[in-house]
Specification:
The structure is a single chain. The protein is 35% helix and 16% strand. It has 337 residues and is an alpha/beta fold. It folds into two domains: 201 residues, Rossmann fold (3-Layer(aba) Sandwich); 100 residues, no CATH class. Helix 5 crosses helix 6. The protein is elongated. The chain starts with a strand and ends with a strand.
């Protein structure tokens, strides 16, 4: 075992940055694991602009001096998201099971490296579902780490961990932060000269109600609730419209959206107005002819030809290319997700 090596999980948010600095202050070399589950806004924005480029750590995380490892765990995470054993928060966020999975993987990495414990930036009482005392205990149990898990920001308020009992760390080095106030964290950030950190919340789209509605609709359409690696990206872009016959259309809001939507042409039909600038629209298969014509009207209605009486829309899939004249507009029976 390497007694001066600690493995932590870090989102790049302020709490996890502070946890790294506290553990480093104890004299440990830190390996910080930054996970990607596919639903982080920052990661999705990266994949929009750089679809074939690997993720890179945030500037704030690199500036801690920790050695950062990025782990893409989408394939392991998606089945958990479809059926989380401990349920979800207010929307689609299975925080307890998510944290448990990340820590289980971090524990495996800790064993590989010879580290004696794993730490997080969790704060007792900060989040009502996932960071109350009972939930913290559940996460420690389902991760398999048990008392090898250290929460340095609230450790002084929690039972002694194994590293404490073994004399590897001192209780006096642990902090007693609790609750939703960020005052202590902001003071600590100044103490550690951390100035570049994201605002709290907003990083994981599974906590967003609108995004969750789109995900729930996708699960209803997919036998077995099977997610593919790029599904989170398609759910992130455009307007999502339910058509009267039950098919779904995704309408680009700008050039970036249009470019992403074109990447998913294999899922159905791509629609674009012929003579006027406007959105790229994807209509997922299966789709009826009636719904396809409704989508063509919607495509024209969101474009620069919306004031025209008739607009020609190109409809294409991998085998068929046609053009239809339609009246621009948003027909009755459609509904935005």
């Amino acid at each position: 075992m390497n007694e001066k090596l600690a493995v932590g999980i870090s989102s790049g948010g302020l709490d996890s940055l502070l946890a790294i600095k506290v553990v480093q202050r104890m004299g440990f070399r830190v390996i910080a694991i930054n996970f990607s589950i596919g639903f982080e806004q920052g990661h999705l924005k990266h994949w929009i602009d750089h679809p074939s480029s690997p993720l890179s750590p945030s500037k704030a995380l690199l500036e801690t001096g920790a050695e950062v490892e990025i782990m893409d765990i989408r394939e392991e995470y998606f089945p958990l998201l479809a059926n989380p054993p401990h349920g979800t928060g207010a929307h689609c966020n299975p925080c307890i099971d998510c944290h448990g999975m990340m820590l289980r993987i971090a524990g495996r990495r800790s064993d590989e490296l010879g580290s004696k414990f794993v730490f997080t930036g969790e704060v007792l009482g900060q989040r009502p579902m996932s960071q109350n005392r009972q939930s913290l205990d559940v996460v420690a149990r389902i991760s398999g780490l048990g008392n090898r898990l250290v929460r340095p920001l609230s450790g002084a308020l929690l039972p002694p961990s194994a590293p404490e009992q073994e004399g590897l760390i001192s209780r006096g080095d642990l902090l007693d932060i609790q609750g939703r106030s960020r005052k202590r964290q902001i003071e600590l950030a100044k103490e550690f000269s951390i100035t570049d950190y994201p605002a709290p919340a907003g990083g994981c789209l599974l906590t967003d109600g609108n995004y969750c509605s789109r995900l729930k609709d996708l699960f209803l359409r997919r036998p077995g609730k099977i997610l593919h690696r790029d599904d989170p990206l398609l759910l992130f872009v455009g307007r999502h419209l339910l058509l009267p016959g039950g098919a779904k259309a995704i309408i680009g809001r700008d050039e970036r959206d249009n470019g992403v939507i074109e990447r998913f042409a294999h899922l159905g039909f791509i629609l674009e107005a012929v003579d006027f600038p406007g959105p790229t629209v994807l209509v997922e298969k299966p789709v009826s002819d009636a719904d396809l014509m409704v989508a063509a009207s919607v495509c024209a209605g969101y474009g620069k030809g919306r004031g025209e009486k008739r607009v020609t829309v190109r409809i294409s899939d991998e085998r068929v290319h046609s053009q239809k004249e339609v009246t621009p507009g948003i027909p009755e029976g459609t509904r935005l997700l």
